[in-house]
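Supplementary notes for students who missed Thursday's class. We covered one full example, reproduced here. Read the sequence, then the structure, then the short commentary at the end.
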Amino acid sequence: MHSYALLAQRQYAYGHLDAACDSWGRLLDEYEHVSSARGDDHFEMMTTQLRRHTNARPVRELAGRAREVAALKN
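Structure (token representation):
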């Protein structure tokens, strides 16, 4: 999970939004089943960065998935 988060953040920093969303999707696959403070931090960072691109298709899809995972975690 941590590796996917770091990869996504690096991809995002280089402007590769589609690739970052793919990596964040993999993070969500793991985060759904893991409880950790580091995972929570990565999830928050992801959602913060995604807010800047709400009109992009991959972001809209990922944001929907993130809402589902957040609902399962609560």
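Commentary. The chain has four helices and no strands. The mean pLDDT is 94. If anything here is unclear, bring it to office hours.
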